[in-house]
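Quarterly update from the structural biology core.
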Amino acid sequence: MYDSGTGYGSSIINNELKPILSIKNGRNGSIEPIIVNGSISQVNLQFGGFEYFSVPDLEVFDPTGSGSGATLRALI
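Predicted structure, tokenized:
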């Protein structure tokens, strides 16, 4: 986690509006954000994927438009 951002998740208890995270090179990699108090605190690698020949560029996209400022950096 490079920067956790703000405004992710929800103020409703047990209702998390998770942003969509996409990986820009390689394929089929899957990560899941962990949101604490409206900020992404960390991400879990669900599946490593295939064809990664360098560190992937990670993009955070919130389809609701409420979250902003999060940046992720992959460490290999």
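The CA atoms of residues 19 and 63 lie 6 Å apart.
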